[in-house]
Amino acid sequence: MNTLLTKNGFFATAFAMVVLFGTLFFATSPASAQFLSGRGARIFLSLSPEHPQPGENVRITADSSLIDLSRSDIEWSVDDEIITRSSGQKEASITAGPLGSEARVSVVARSLDGTLASGEAFIRPAEIDILWESSSYVPPFYRGRALPSAGTFVRAHAIVRFKPERETQISGSDIIFTWKRNGSVVQSASGRGRSSALLSAPTLFGVDTIEVNAVTIDGALEGQESVRIPSIEPVLTLYKDHPLFGIMYHQALTDTTFVPDIEMAFAAVPYFAEAKSPDDPRLIYSWRINGNDVAADESKRSSLTINADKSAGVAQIGISLKHATNWFMQSSGAWEITFGSPIK
Amino acid sequence: MPVNKNILKYPLVAIVALLLAGLAAWYFFLDKQAQTITSGDSARGLGTSAPSFGSAIGSTYSNIVSGITALVGGAGTEPASKIPPQLWRVTKTPVAGMGFVGSATSSKLYFAERSTGYILEADPKTGALVRLTNKLFPKTYEAVFSRDGSVVLRSINEDGGVDSFAGSLASTSVLAGNYLTRNIRAIVPDPETHGLLYMVKNDTGEGVAVRSSWSGAKPKIVFTSPLSSWKLTSLDDGRTFFTLQPADNVPGFAYELKSSGSLVPEIQDVPGLTFLPRASSTAILYGASAGGTLNLFAKASDKGQIFPLSIRTVADKCVWDLSNKQLIVYCAVPQFVVSNTFLNDWYRGVTHTSDSWWRADANDGTVELVFSPSEGDESLDVENPVIDASGEHIAFMNAVDKTLWLLRISK
After folding, report:
1. What is the reported pLDDT for B5?
2. Alpha carbon of B84 to those of A286, B126, B127, B132, B284: distances in Å?
3. Which of B359, B342, B351, B343 lies closest to B407, judged by CA?
4. Chain B residues with beta carbon closer than 8 angstroms to that of A129
5. pTM, 2 dp
């Protein structure tokens, strides 16, 4: 009895799984491609691109293992309107509609022996933007983007526009995101509503491909986007720290600079470095003037004041920047500063 | 006994003499010190006449740095109250920002000095300069003006963070106001509400856009994003745009923030995107920087086609002329660009350009040269251009030295 019950239970479970699988397989309609049973045999339709964007040209390819499509009369329709009819035409192209639209592409084929086959696919355009920024250091009022360098983090954010026909746009919290880095899924960043991901920056001079796949909970809409993010070396830039105007971020010092005063403070700014500020305790500055090591003020190690009184007036400044915990981070620079003559 | 008297008398006389000598020495010592202090005070300006309240070249120049030729490239004052040249160098010292105040018929240019934070007024028609405030804000890095003359002065504090003082001209020479929340990353006037729109980073690293009154009161979060590198644009017609801060060869995106809080894309996936929407229309201008090449594009309306303009520059160097019913935009165009990563290098102050001014029509894409500096003139690297309500003057900063310039447009 127990055995019979167990067998019954097994068959019931198996049947339920088959039904469930079948339901999922046929009822769910990914935004890209699917085939449905039509008249006669089935035709499989594949879309390229798989997840089209609004206005994008979509190439649809028909395939069947039951009839020879290349020797069949094939009729293509979009929303029941015939767009082409010819013999052996296994491909068709249409332009995806705007966001929120749905186009039903159907194909019917009749083989030489009269066998009918059909297939159907839906084109539901979706858009995904991948935005990103780095946690690397840029000074206040810098108008550009912080770029990633080895040891920093990249915060990526996917803005998804999924809009079912005649409905409002789907909220990000109702979308399942799968983040991939160089093809490998980042499990810790993926999941429902996980529209942003904090990822480590590519290694020195490396380039990472960050990819996100987004799908609605019911699987009706799906999209995919990727972006290549390169890693750069931090850039050490030297500015005058003027007593009246502050750090002159608009005038980076060139290789040779003339300073008309006899004393001037200089500020080194480690653009795109792994740091919270130029005086981040993890940053190790080595200042050299005319070949001699010079110790900077411990509380402000990114800046140095040079007094050229009673000297020839030329100072060759060399700065080397390293990181206490990030061995990949290294930057250096050299500048020749000519000071003005002391006022007599 | 008389011997004893003499013994007492001589030491007493000697002591008195020593005391007198000591006092005399002390007197001369103090006198010398006083002279030193007096000369030091004189050198610092004690006893000199009160500083001028307005001059043709700005108070910093006349009161503080007139002796430092290196900063101004030579002395010389420009007399006030004369019709300025077509290209008028308003200041010889750096400014923090500027804005046109007033109506189309009587527009004045307000600006803030970089070194002092003093607000000055320049009359584009007469060339007269007047200092409006005397409240000191040393090392003001950025100043943002509203059309009614209110200002936000921004500086870097001891911790390396950013302080923002929002003030208004309460009465003569008094700038009344208060400090806003710290570490505001970007701030712009919000013309529709006469308030402010600013971006801060919250504890979790998210970017939070806040709309508030000019004093910072009644803050209301209008937008939250996992990213904080946004450039804000708030137009007269109430529309608000968020553009991801640009970098060469890096995809940029620009969105309009709808009242519902949703972002509607304006421009997507353009490398090195700089974006400039036009108020009271759906026209846009945007620039792309990729592979060492700059390109500028325009779109006359949201239904229109995007087309390239034949001038190569970034949208940061352009300004729409709202006085003109045509879709006219003025752009400063570099004569040449030497850097392969122009935006990154330009923003770091590593590279500078020498620009000419062009007028472009976003309807038909035609362009026309408006002003080109003569040979031997100082090269102008235009940034932060603003235009007055009448469309007659464009004020801009020269990114080379942050000086303020005014261009009269001959229509």
Report:
1. 67
2. 50, 7, 5, 20, 32
3. B359
4. 253, 265, 268-269
5. 0.83
